[in-house]
Amino acid sequence: MVDAEATRPQRAEAHAPWVEKYRPRVVKDVASQEQIVGVLENALKTGNMPHCLFYGPPGTGKTTTALAIAKELYGPELYKQRVKELNASDERGISVVRNKIKTFASQAVGAPAPGYPSPPYKILILDEADAMTGDAQSALRRMMETYSKVTRFFLLCNYVTKIIDPIASRCAKFRFSPLAQETMGARLKFIGEQEGLEMSDDVFAMCSKHSGGDMRKAITLLQSAARLFAGKISGASIVEVAGHIPDEKIKKMYDLCREGKFEEAQAHMEDILRDGFSGLKILDQYSDYVLEADCSDEVKAEIFIKLGEVDRFLAQGADEGMQLATLVSTSIKALAKMASAA
């Protein structure tokens, strides 16, 4: 019975998502954000943290940094009492601010934890704060003013422009940049060695390409490929797991448009949809191909205007087939103008 109890945490660790298993535990281990890490480490030495606003693309270390700060300040035990994490995309209304946030922020702090700085305030981590309504943000601003002596607010978001100015002006702002391929490759190599994976040389480049600088997505791709291909991973394995449309299919779609073959181009596009790829994925890869294609800037501009419109309509729930057909039509017209001008 004792042996079973002892091995339970080990089994849980073995089956844990690698994103959590290999999440940095201290601020200095956060990858590729040297300037931010330097500033925050200096603040940690004094224990006097300001309200913080972390912004930047997904998977660049915002949540990891906030959690690491809290754990360094309070340790594993006091952390449970002094830190509260909320996801504002799930709980974004004013009632959450008035109830959950106010209740936590107004509480007095208890005794410090031996061996840790344990400053006399709590930390509220509000992830995806840019999803909060305007009224909720206004109420949050008043909370930040009222309870600043006993609570520090860490706001995490992708788009800083969606945070109202009165909140942004009360925070120290830190911009997190997408991770470089070299940095991402080094971290993925470390994880691969720890997990005993056999990886080809192009795995890291493919992870970086298909994650777009998002470390969380890159690690998830690596773990998914490891499970699917029994620990023997190649660049092609990553491409398959990422749900990438084969490049030759996107090229054929563009070539058919260039040749003015509307019915064939539309039928080919519908075949891609039937293969299980989403309309948004087609837009994403088609835009990348057009950007690098051998056509004039005027043609690219016309196609990209239509790409933007289709993207907006798809986000609003429009029919994928109809919207992509209008993209094919616009592409044919734009490319035909270039051909006639030549």
Automatic annotation (TrEMBL):
InterPro entries, per database record: AAA+_ATPase (IPR003593), ATPase_AAA_core (IPR003959), DNA_pol3_clamp-load_cplx_C (IPR008921), DNA_Rep/Repair_Clamp_Loader (IPR050238), P-loop_NTPase (IPR027417), Rep_factorC_C (IPR013748), RFC_lid (IPR047854)
Q: Mind listing the UniProt keywords for this protein, alphabetically? A: ATP-binding, DNA replication, Nucleotide-binding
| CDD domains the record matches | AAA, HLD_clamp_RFC
Q: Which residues form the signal peptide?
A: none
Q: Name one GO biological process term.
A: DNA repair
Taxonomically, the superkingdom here is Eukaryota
List the GO terms this entry assigns under cellular component, sorted alphabetically: DNA replication factor C complex; nucleus
Q: Which GO terms describe its molecular function?
A: ATP binding; ATP hydrolysis activity; DNA binding; DNA clamp loader activity
Domain AAA+ ATPase: from-to ranges: 48-180
Q: Does the keyword Magnesium apply?
A: no
Concerning PANTHER family, the annotation shows: REPLICATION FACTOR C / DNA POLYMERASE III GAMMA-TAU SUBUNIT, REPLICATION FACTOR C SUBUNIT 4
Stated family:
Belongs to the activator 1 small subunits family.
Task: Spell out the subunit comment.
Answer: Heterotetramer of subunits RFC2, RFC3, RFC4 and RFC5 that can form a complex with RFC1.
> Which NCBIfam families does the record cross-reference, listed alphabetically?
PRK00440.1 (NF001679)
Q: Mind telling me what this protein is named?
A: AAA+ ATPase domain-containing protein
